[in-house]
Amino acid sequence: MKKADFHVHTNYSDGVYSPEKIVDIALDAGLEAISLTDHDNILSYQVAVDYLKKINKSDSLEIIQGVEINTLYNDYEIHILGYFMDVNNNDFKNLIKSQQEARIKQTYEIIDLLDKKVGIKIPFEIIESQVAKNGSIGRPHIAKAITSVGGTSSVMESYSKFINDNSQVYVKRKTVTPHDAVEIIYDAGGVPVIAHPHDVDIAESLIKELMNYGLRGIEAYHRKHSPAVVEYFSSMAEKFGLIVTGGSDFHAPNILNGQIILGKHFIPEWIYDKLIQEKKRLDLA
């Protein structure tokens, strides 16, 4: 068993810290295993592994290859976590490539509409500069860019005015279905898990569907999940023969209390064992 956090973001997507900084925080917090699960991006993994070697701490912290794929299904945004994938698998590589291309296309389309419809001019470079090289740009970066050029007085205002389905300048990103994401991760030797399912009111029926495509786990432990929600999804996982996973979904220090969510040990240590066992089971299947 290990103290672990299997849902962490870096500046290769919408996290504020570099992979190196996340490693330092995890070590200071006494974690023994983490997974960097950037949106549609897997580049932070190697950076973190190389940094661990550089500081001679490879024996102190295990880093598991991870990803969080953003998908759409019947107007629901569904996030699928993947662990232990072969990132050189052709279908998986094509998935990441298409997701990145869709993010860039969406960004340029929103930039164009902001200029034409409301007169807010944003150079693409301002948005791109907010992430690590070849990182995943997305809505948070566009919202911050709007504020930085004076288009709004706050990021929250950017969201309420421009980054939502009712805005005249917002364009939905073209993305894969959760079924496709699950199947591709599974076929690449990975363990697909539905992320923070409490966000989705069709979670139970969708989970049943996704099991036909290879879904192997439910993220029951999440910083937004109450004990009752954790129990609900843990029971569902047991009923369906799925594993339970968990993570902080860390993006930045918690503004409310000044604490860093990453490293709060609300995730049972046995979750590490279950994830490892599931990977071994899939490898033998």
Describe, in plain words, how this protein is organized in 3D.
This protein is an alpha/beta fold. The protein folds into two domains: 194 residues, Alpha-Beta Barrel (TIM Barrel); 66 residues, no CATH class. The protein contains ten helices and seven strands. A seven-stranded mixed beta sheet has the order 1-2-3-4-5-6-7. α1 packs across α2 and α5 packs across α6. The model has no long low-confidence stretch (mean pLDDT 93).
Can you tag this structure with a few keywords?
285 residues; TIM Barrel; 2 domains; seven-stranded mixed beta sheet; alpha/beta
- Name given to the CATH homologous superfamily of the largest domain: Metal-dependent hydrolases
Strand line-up in the sheet with most strands:
1-2-3-4-5-6-7
| Radius of gyration from the alpha-carbon trace, in angstroms | 19 Å
CATH class of the largest domain: Alpha Beta
**Binned strand content:** 15-25%
Q: In whole angstroms, how far apart are the ends?
A: 24 Å
Overall 3D shape: globular
What would you say the CATH architecture of the largest domain is? Alpha-Beta Barrel
Strand count, sense and barrel status of the largest sheet are: 7 strands, mixed
- Please mark out the parts with pLDDT under 50 across 5 or more consecutive residues, or reply none: none
- Share of residues in helices: 40-55%
Helix/strand class: alpha/beta
Number of strands: 7
Order of helices and strands: EHEHEEHHHHHEHEHEH
